[in-house]
Please model this.
Amino acid sequence: MDQSESTQTFEDSNPVVVEVSNQTDSTLASTSQSRLRFQKLVRDVQIRNVYSIAKENAGCAPGVDVNHPPHYIETLFQKVEIQITDYDESMLVSKQLTNESLKSFLEQPRVGKVRWISCAGISFDVIRTIGLKYDLHPLAIEDIFHVPQRIKCDHYEEHMYVSMILLSLRNCEEVDIPATEPSSEFSSVLFGLDKEYLKKVGFNSDELSKYVRPTCDMEQCSFFLLNNNVVLSIFQGQGRAITEHINHRLNGKQHSFGLKHNSVSLLRKSCDPSFLLHALIDGVVDQHFEILDFYNDQVNELSESIIMRPKLSLIKMLHSIIKELKLLKKTLGPTERLIMSINSAKDGLEGLMGVDDPNQDYKISKMTSVYLQDVNDHAQTIRESFEGLEETVKGMIDLAFNTIAHSTNENMKILAVVSLLFLPLTLLCGIYGMNFEFFPELHFELGVFYFWILAGIITICVLSFSYRMSWLTMDR
Model:
């Protein structure tokens, strides 16, 4: 997205507004520092808008009317990548559109049984056009703009609304921007640690290259199952990790067990819009497997270092991993309830509310309901794996502290044996170091040799006693 200028309006009564034009700014394009400053500006304004919205709209009517929108939503504009795909078992037509060409295209007659509208980005003019065309509920439109939104499923007369969060990891070594900066101007960061912070807590260059701390980007996803076999997906950022796989399946380029083969996929043959919704949800959930693999590998590497040589810096990293795993588990947690709520629509509104609406034709098919159970199994497996990793990391922290404590005890044992060895000798030296006038041994010509013989005998006795008591056995 090209931006040339940003204008801030700071007023007590109105939210802060950022207007982004379409012209290319050579200054922003020339240096990455300018791009980072612009990203920070957008996020600061978004955060300021959130507090301003909460203050100004308290007690106002819920929902967003696209004909009379609030000022802070009406001015939200960005270039959106729009793809509309019409398909059935025998044909597939895909069209790339812009903000300006969307309205005229939606007025044309549809070809194909199922239509999928995919929007990469959030802009009011696009949401308004789609909302008027498909009669989106004001509450659902409000949820699109208020990000991040909780994971949930809402059922309306004209459509079903599903809100999810797409997570992706960025490796600090693979990007040219700081770890705390999101990869998209309109995405947010769930967690992330930069290198400067890690150096402050005691990590050297080798450890930073071996134990790379990730940055987790969080992207809002809004899915709609509409009447007339229409599915709408709106991603806060790009959403390519989800849409590319679905496009491959629709085009007949399937992937299984690492092999490619051309055939008509079940998604294409079924001509089931609810199954397309399942594909979107399944893609979001499966993204967690990549995150899970990353943490599995890192925990295994850290466990070897903890066993070989526990360090305070590694323990601090383990605490950071526990915090990250808790955030990931909390983000994924509502997915299981979400799938249960979606499955409740397999009989339409009649099954949900006991109301038979002849104008409502969106339903979750029996086939989709079965496949959603598989998605639910994936979500449970990922959540249980996160919980298992969390327990493993806690055990590693306990092991590290126990290992350090044991090493300290062994060192103290050595010092105790040394002290015990010199204690009788100190007593002997103290006796013969007294200032008494009559000390017969002091006048012996061989008295010093007798002293060393006596000291040697005492040393041998002390060492023999310590060995018999296993005080000299070192358990490393």
Q: What stands out?
A: The mean pLDDT is 76.
